[in-house]
Amino acid sequence: SELKYKNIIDYSPIGIYQSGLNGEVIFANNRFAKILGYDSPDEVIKLNFMKDIYANPGIRDMLIDQIKNGNTRYELELHWKKKNGKKIWVRNTIRVNRDADGNILNFEGFIQDISLWKKYETELIKLSKAVEQSSAAIIITDPNGNIEYVNKSFTTITGYSFEEVRNKNPRILKSGKQNDAFYKNLWETILSRKDWKGELQNRRKNGELYWESSIITPITNEKGEIINFVAIKEDISEKKKMIKDLIEAKEKAEEMNRIKTVFFANMSHELRTPFVGIMGYAELLSEILTDPEAKEMADGILNTSIRLTDTLTKILDITQLEYKKIEANRALVNIKRVVEEIYARYIKAAERKNISFSRSINLDNNFIYTDENFLFGILSNLVSNAIKYTKEGSVKIETYKEVDNSKSKLIIRVSDTGIGIEEEKKELIWEEFRQGSEGTTRNYQGCGLGLSIAKKYTEIIGGKIYLESKYGSGSTFILEIPFD
Ligand code: ADP
């Protein structure tokens, strides 16, 4: 009979031991030795619980407390040390053996290694906390869609408590804003074991509509059967509203911009027309008047009118560039003729300021396939600026061909010895209505449109425009147009 019990104990799947009053191991079975990583019970018999097995000394006090309470049997979950020093979690059931007077004789214990359970338990706690505390609403239903669990955020978003929705179907949130086909597709998707993702409008307990973004995932068991559905939902009403407001604001801004553009275009046109008459008469007056003072006045009218029409033309140009899609009207253009015409148009202005104005054309082929009006527009803006921003010295137009990677391009450089452009203004001056002198005293007339127009025209004809300038000693604007 003893052999029978010995066998049972030896092959028991539970670690069994007996220990003395000072913590010495008196007996241990195979399983006990194995759990602690020892080869045999013989090896374990030499050990002492306090010294070799308990992972932290506090355990001893804990046990003494239990014993003082007079318990004869108790169960604890403890950290034990294995032979290799690694810690394990052990569920330890202890029986205190006492004599007839109640003095403790020894202890008997049963142990199970619960390290893996503990690990799962920690994982589980972590996951359930994540679900509980998630800012998204989480709903778990059974395969029929009856609610088994909702987290706190569900209550915050919908207004329904867990108790109110337990065993109910999430259709209590239905707003009627989605049609049957919508729900049919949803169910078909999740029943085919796929995730369903989408946005839908639901109704809170207080009747208010709200938008949610949802992911519904079917959970299957090892046989592939659906055992639950998990829905994760985020309230996106605010986000939706913000997007709607933004779209409306953008549309409004675009509409305002369109109105502004049309207004500018109309106004410039309306204002420009009368100037044709004013300028014509001023020129005529200047020719027929003999009194120098009166002649000067007529010239004054002419010059200010020219300036105004120039500004109006620029506004008209820029509004048209903004408003409609303007395309280049390409033809063979004689570059020499264009440069000569620009020269002729601005020589008087340069002479009036005592600036030397020159042009050079170094081309074997004077023709380029491009839009002549745009080329004119670009060059006249560059040259009029060069003269305007130069007090003394010279303005030069240089025209030549450059071959880059076997591609040839026309280069027109307009350089001056004028005021130059500050480094930090070099980007800004290409923008509409922006000027180098803004913020400081405006010493130069202008509306800040010339370079924007020149840049836009250059882009339409497939060219490049950029500048080189040293503040205080002049600027060079370079226009590049591919020959082919
Ligand atoms: P505007 O001349 O009417 O102000 P632009 O668009 O033609 O407008 O030029 C923008 C700005 O670029 C000017 O205000 C000026 O500060 C600067 N700028 C343009 N050309 C020159 C130049 N040749 N030399 C110095 N500054 C220039």
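^ adenosine-5'-diphosphate complex. The chain has 14 helices and 17 strands. Residues 381, 385-386, 389, 416, 418-421, 429, 435-437, 446-452, 475 surround adenosine-5'-diphosphate (CB under 6 Å).
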